[in-house]
Amino acid sequence: MPNIDLIETTILDIPTIRGHVLSMATMRTQTAVLVEIRFSDGSVGIGEGTTIGGLSYGAESPESIRSAIDTYIGPALLGREGDDVNGAIQLVDKLVKGNRIAKTAVEIALWDGLGKRLGVPVAQLFGGAVHDRLPVAWTLASGNSETDILEAQEMIETRRHNVFKLKIGKQSVREDVAHVARIKQTVGDAARVRVDVNQAWSLDEARWGLKGLQDAGCELVEQPVQARFQRAMAELTSQYEIAVMADESLNGPEDALSVAASNAADVFAIKVAQSGGLKRASEVIAIGQAAGLGLYGGTMLETGLGTAAALQLFSTVETLHWGTELFGPLLLTGEILAEPITYRDFCVELPAGNGIGATLDPDKIAFFRRDGGRTMKTVVGG
User: Fold this and answer.
1) Distance of alpha carbon 322 from alpha carbon 192, whole angstroms
2) Which tens digits make up the pLDDT trace of 198-221?
3) With 0-12 CB in 10 A as exposed, 13-18 as middle and 19+ as buried, what is 329?
4) Is 167 a catalytic residue?
5) How many angstroms separate the CA atoms of 300 and 192, rounded?
């Protein structure tokens, strides 16, 4: 059985095609931490850890992700059996608290290596894919109504997206509701419209906001209040017909159980990185299924690498009631995969191939890497 011989991390900085305006930050570059694990039999696994907006979104930054891997996670795994993914997950959970995105990056690389050695897609390791394509939403986040409307119309005409999530929460509630209403009125029945508030509202603002959004024809509101305000989420979930989705409230299966038990959401936004890896994300999915909640395949705006890994898991889920938002690669000015993820007919397609189904383009990695050629390595005996 092959052992883990070397773990490398690389930071990539990739510009976005436009400013991506969230309630807490405006993104013009996405930063990804790539992980490459080399095994003693010569096989290689790749993974990705990505967050949003530096430290404005959550407790991990690209720099902390890399540091956690290089300093703590990598050394703990060197020399271990490469096929023992569950054992690696359990060991890292004991040695490293939190740092879910860092754990995710390493775990994806372990699953990728295992799938390649067995000659199967990672989806097969989670029971097998039941879908080869999934609906995919696009986020309208330019910060300008007219720009968003033109963007939405182009997406509909080219059959790339007909579900749109609007990033709001930076303006007043009244202005946000008017912005959403203008877009929904323009696209009409040709598209579905949802919003993501990214925790920006107080409970009072959320009461007015949900009523206005519901009247405007919006079908779902994501994380309207801060994640820790679970009672407020439960009140909003029970008081309005518009669906309430938990996102930042969900950091692994323990949070999922608490949210479900408190009736603090109608829908789970399942993010692989926020859950702590593919295995923990599968547990969040199971809790949502058992509680009868809607499921949605979320994104941390990963590159094609992380998107491919997420597709491997989400393709195994019988019903994703609210589809996915795995559009991350489309927001970036550069593609880092040799064979890009395919988007067409309002869907994203499961990549073919063993492991996570992704192969890196070395020239693009060299172009976007932050350090201009320096890679951090954790090596057996090093």
Assistant:
1) 11
2) 999 999 999 999 999 999 999 999
3) buried
4) yes
5) 21
Q: Which amino acid is located at 379 in the chain?
A: V
Least confident range from 21-30, 36-45, 239-248: namely: 21-30
Length of the chain: 382
* pLDDT value at residue 184: 96
Query: Is residue 58 within 8 Å of 227, Cβ to Cβ?
Result: no
Task: Choose the catalytic residue: 167, 170, 271, 279.
Answer: 167
CA nearest 224: which of 193, 265, 252?
Answer: 265
Per-residue confidence (pLDDT) for residue 379, from 0 to 100:
65
Q: Three-state secondary structure along the chain?
A: CCEEEEEEEEEEEEEEEEEEECCCCEEEEEEEEEEEEEECCCCEEEEEEECCCCCCCCCCCHHHHHHHHHHHHHHHHCCCECCCHHHHHHHHHHHCCCCHHHHHHHHHHHHHHHHHHHCCEHHHHCCCCCCCEEEECEEECCCCHHHHHHHHHHHHHCCCCCEEEEECCCCCHHHHHHHHHHHHHHHHHHCEEEEECCCCCCHHHHHHHHHHHHHCCCCEEECCCCCCCHHHHHHHHHHCCCEEEECCCCCCHHHHHHHHHCCCCCEEEECHHHHCCHHHHHHHHHHHHHHCCEEEECCCCCCHHHHHHHHHHHCCCCCCCCCECCCHHHHECCCCECCCCCEECCEEECCCCCECCCCECHHHHHHHECCCCCCEEEECCC
Q: What are phi and psi of 66, to 5 degrees?
A: -65, -45
β-strand partners of 3: 81
Q: Which amino acid is at 122?
A: V
Query: What letter represents residue 359's amino acid?
Result: T
Above 80 in pLDDT, residue 373? Answer: no
Q: With contact defined as beta carbons under 8 Å apart, do 42 and 78 qualify?
A: no
Signed CA dihedral, 274, 221, 30, 152: sign only: positive
Q: For the segment 146-161, what is each residue's pLDDT rounded down to a tens digit?
A: 999 999 999 999 999 9
